[in-house]
Design a protein that fits this description.
With about 160 residues, the chain is mostly helical. It is built from 11 helices and no strands. The two termini are about 45 Å apart. About 20% of the residues are buried.
Length: about 160
């Protein structure tokens, strides 16, 4: 009986801690779409729903009442760039230089001082990047992974971690 009461109190206090006004990222998710009331039952329902269906999808996509985060938006721009310029970009990746590759480096937050290193690293690891790339998103993630694994590039580029 004591365990049941303790579990109920812990659940109640954690549910109440989650209650706040909708909007932003701290109070978004499917639970807020179900109910926005500030009663104990509504808060418990919201907490349970958000536990079962985490709001991380909403935060990355800007849906179910969540704001899309700037870091995610920045990666979305880079992935869109890769998709739009795929053919030209993969040629320049193999060459290790070019305006599309330079633009990708900029979208990934790389400083101009490390662009030479960026190009040579991508060129050196081109076959590894392309072998594991089934989609445009995979290609972007593989490029980001190679940049992250290079000490000079990881210091000179402001990568978003997903």
């Amino acid at each position: 009986m004591k365990i049941l009461i303790s579990a109920t109190l812990i659940f109640a206090f954690s549910s109440l801690a989650l209650a706040s006004s909708p909007g932003g990222s701290d109070s978004c998710g499917l639970g807020w779409e179900v109910t926005q009331k500030k009663t104990f039952a509504a808060t418990s329902t919201r907490a349970t729903t958000n536990y079962v269906v985490p709001s991380t999808f909403g935060m990355t996509s800007g849906t179910i009442g969540c704001d899309s985060h700037g870091l995610v938006k920045k990666d979305q721009e880079a992935v869109k760039f890769v998709a739009t310029n795929y053919d030209s970009l993969i040629i320049e990746m193999a060459q290790g230089q070019g305006e599309y590759l330079h633009s990708l480096a900029q979208l990934m937050g790389c400083q101009d001082s490390v662009y030479g290193r960026f190009g040579s690293t991508i060129q050196d690891r081109y076959s590894k990047i392309m072998d594991k790339s089934n989609t445009v998103v995979d290609l972007f993630k593989n490029v980001r992974s190679e940049v992250k694994n290079d000490a000079t590039l990881s210091a000179g580029c402001h990568l978003n971690v997903i």
